[in-house]
């Protein structure tokens, strides 16, 4: 028997590992336990805030298997064994306030996070998606700038996908000092410069002595592209958007059809 080729399996959560109802299928779960029992590190990598990922880390027993989570799109890396933050970075207050100004000038919603929950000045069906997805409290405030007086881990700009595409182009052109990517068609994630899932994955792999070619990364959206390209084997689930389809090594079944289980069967257990 040859030694195991892949040592780390990095999974996006929403629309990748999770089904549309935010659950992990029993098939995916079963195979993830098989992979972990073979010594493969299963790492959850999401745009979600850390607290909104913990239930899935618990479900997959990541602390038992001494594994890790990458949250806030790469801004935080947590060791699940001792719940220790290994890496953390954030947008400066000046950057957050300038993003707020940009959101007003371009007529899009903006949110960030604090210990009070999801912070916004406005209501929107798209903000409601984030509230439902994270299970966090919506802390609506009269003044975003007065509320956010310090740094913030990330901001999200939200609006109808067609319009947000144009806003994304504009923001990327104007703000080369920030990392910008889409996690859902109506979520434009803004991070500190040089921060994305790949950067944090690289940090973690190096810490664990795992080579790039020993990593599989699975995702479905623009904010997964960096890690899918970084990994030795980069995989999309079938519900990836058309403009990204050609930018991975392999495509498996959709998030509704146990795509992650297919990855494990084909590339880890075979």
How would you characterize this protein structure?
34% of the residues lie in helices and 24% in strands. It folds into two domains: 157 residues, Rossmann fold (3-Layer(aba) Sandwich), CATH 3.40.50.1000; 100 residues, Hypothetical Protein, Haloacid Dehalogenase-like Hydrolase, Chain: A, domain 2 (2-Layer Sandwich), CATH 3.30.1240. The strands form two sheets. Strands 5-4-3-2-1-12-13-14 form an eight-stranded mixed β-sheet. A hairpin with a 2-residue loop joins strand 10 and strand 11. It is built from ten helices and 14 strands. The model has no long low-confidence stretch (mean pLDDT 97). The protein is α/β, with parallel strands linked by helices.
Terminal CA distance: 11 Å
CATH-defined fold name of the largest domain? Rossmann fold
Q: Can you list the strand order of the major beta sheet?
A: 5-4-3-2-1-12-13-14
Oligomer: single chain
Name the CATH class of the largest domain: Alpha Beta
Brief characterization of the structure:
With 270 residues, this protein is of the alpha/beta class.
What is the secondary structure topology, with strand pairs?
Blueprint: E1 8-11, H1 13-17, H2 26-37, E2 41-45, H3 54-59, E3 68-71, E4 76-79, E5 84-88, H4 93-105, E6 109-114, E7 117-120, H5 125-134, E8 138-140, H6 144-147, E9 155-158, H7 161-174, E10 178-184, E11 187-192, H8 197-208, E12 215-219, H9 225-230, E13 233-237, E14 250-252, H10 259-269
Parallel strand pairs: 1-2, 1-12, 2-3, 7-8, 12-13, 13-14
Antiparallel strand pairs: 3-4, 4-5, 6-7, 6-9, 9-11, 10-11
């Amino acid at each position: 028997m040859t030694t195991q080729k892949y040592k780390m399996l990095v999974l996006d959560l929403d629309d990748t590992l999770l089904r549309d109802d935010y659950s992990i299928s029993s098939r995916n779960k079963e195979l993830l336990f098989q992979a972990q029992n073979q010594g493969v590190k299963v790492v959850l990598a999401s745009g979600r805030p850390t607290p909104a990922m913990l239930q899935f880390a618990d479900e997959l027993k990541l602390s038992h298997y001494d594994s890790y989570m990458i949250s806030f799109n790469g801004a935080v890396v947590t060791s699940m064994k001792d719940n220790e933050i290994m890496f953390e970075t954030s947008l400066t207050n000046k950057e957050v306030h300038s993003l707020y100004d940009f959101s007003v000038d371009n007529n899009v919603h903006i949110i960030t996070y604090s210990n009070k929950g999801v912070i916004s000045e406005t209501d929107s069906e798209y903000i409601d998606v984030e509230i439902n997805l994270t299970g966090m409290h919506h802390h609506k405030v009269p003044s975003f700038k007065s509320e956010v007086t310090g740094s913030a881990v990330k901001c999200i700009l939200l609006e109808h996908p067609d319009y947000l595409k144009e806003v994304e182009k504009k923001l990327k052109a104007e703000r080369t000092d920030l990392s910008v990517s889409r996690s859902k068609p109506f979520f434009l994630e803004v991070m500190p410069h040089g921060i994305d899932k790949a950067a944090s994955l690289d940090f973690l792999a190096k810490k664990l002595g795992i080579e790039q070619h020993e990593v599989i990364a699975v995702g479905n959206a623009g904010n997964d592209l960096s890690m899918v390209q970084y990994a030795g084997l980069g995989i999309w689930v079938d519900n990836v958007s058309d403009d990204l389809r050609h930018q991975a090594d392999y495509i498996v079944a959709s998030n509704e059809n146990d795509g992650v289980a297919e990855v494990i069967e084909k590339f880890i257990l075979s």
